Each structure stands twice: as C-alpha cells, then as structure tokens.
Sequence to fold (298 residues):
Amino acid sequence: MSRPAGSSLQFICKQCRHTLRRKIGQDARRFTTTRLLESRALPTFKPTSSPELDGLLSTIRMKYFLPQYLNEHQRKLIRSSKLRSQLENDPVYATFGDEEIRLQHMDIANEMPRKSAFLKAISLFASEDWKNLPSLLEGYHHAKANLDPQWLGLMIQMAREAGVMNIVVQCLAQVERNGLSLGIPTVREQILLGIRQIAREAKWDVEGTKTLRKAEHVLRHMEHPAHCGSRTVSDQDPRAEAYVVAIPLELAARQAIRAGRDERNKVEIYSNRLIAALAQQKSALVCPSEDRESIFFF
Fold:
C-alpha cells in the first residue's frame, strides 16, 4: 500500500524526525543567505594610469567602502573572528547591481585603510585618472567619512592644475550622493577662485566666455537646498558673499572689454547684485584676504 504524500516522516522515530527537520531548516537557511541582495551599487573605478593607484583604489573600495554598503548583520559577519571559518567554508555573497562580491573576514583594526588614503589617491591622479573622482567622493560620503574641508580644498586646487575643473563642477550636481557641497566655505571659495584663475592663466581670451558660463553654473547650483539654497536669506547668506558675486562680475567685465559691448547687460546685472550683496552683508568685502586684490583688479 502506498504512503500518502507528505507522510514520509511518520515511520521515523520521534528523535530522528526532530533531528532531520532541524537539518532541513538549517540547509534551507544556508541556501537563502548565500546571496545577499543590495539595492545600491557599490562605486566602481575605471582603470588608471598606474598599478599603484589601481591597487589603492581597489583597497579603498573593498576594505573601506564595502563594509559601509552592507547591512548590520553582514558587517558583523565579516568582522567576527568566530565566524571566519564559516565564511571560508560556506561562501556568502552580496550582490550590488550586476556585481556579485564574496564576503570575506576583515580585521578592521589592521586592514581598513585610513581616511587619509583619500589624499594618497588624489595625489596619484594623472589627468586621465580624475574621471574616478565622482566614485571616490560618493564612496566616502556613503561611508560617512566626513572628509576634512581642507582636503577638499586641496583636491579642487589639484583638479584645476590638472585641467579638469569641469569634473569638479559636474560633481556639484550630485551633491546628495557625494557630499561635495558649496555650503562648505572652502569648497565654495576654491571652486570660484579656481574658475577665475583658469581665465587669468588664459590671458582673459575666449576662455573667459567659458569660465563665465562655468561660474554662472556654480551660482545656479548654490540655489539647491543641499548647497546653499534657502527661502530665508540671512546677513551671512553664502549667496550674498561679495566674492561670490564679484567673480562673475569681473569675468563679465573682461568679456565686455574684449567684445566691445556688454552682452545681455551682465556687467550691469552683476554690479547691482554686488552692491546689494555688500549692503546685505553689512561688512567689508567677504573673501579670502590673500585674493582680494587679484579679484577686483581690472
């Protein structure tokens, strides 16, 4: 006589039946946790100009970024010495978009790179390597690294010297992903002064037209809430800082002199804004002291 479906366990002793059910449950749990899905992609880096930089970026990605993209359970799994052998014998994977990464034990105290690895990375950037900046900033921001504003200022200076200021300006559009905010005084100053310096080094020729557009692009970004935008305008509003208005004013004036006319009345517009900004600030020109003379030297 055949046994009814689902009754295969009724002829096994009670203790064996309990053991078998527990084993089946463990196997099922093990199977379902070998693939851990994540909704957000882990930042990736494009190949660079040097093996040293490739290795450093890979280390930053796998040892610094990855743990911060895992959930609490997964982080405990890779940090626990007791579970190290389990990870080695029973592979666990995390999936980020189309990428699958096998989780490995990590000695946080000795293996995780210091936050200053950011400085080491950008110091190794050749001009063509700056395309990796957006991913680098995004990873550190997601990891809540809180990069020193002075480091960001140095980064912007280095980008200008490498001729890739456009990449920095592009990063401003993704402030919520990478944290590069014009609300940070050093970031605001170095970007605007860097744009002016580009025009100056080009002897104020046709490059001046491009830099004016770039400066105006930055001003538009400042209206975003994640940068400086707010319905309430205070006496210390960054958008009313004198140098913030004076730099596009100078660029517009240089362009007007070269063209022989004030196209779209930009000199007049920015002059009026500067007067209003000084009145709003109720103070002397607000800009880095070492750059005041150069900013307003026509």
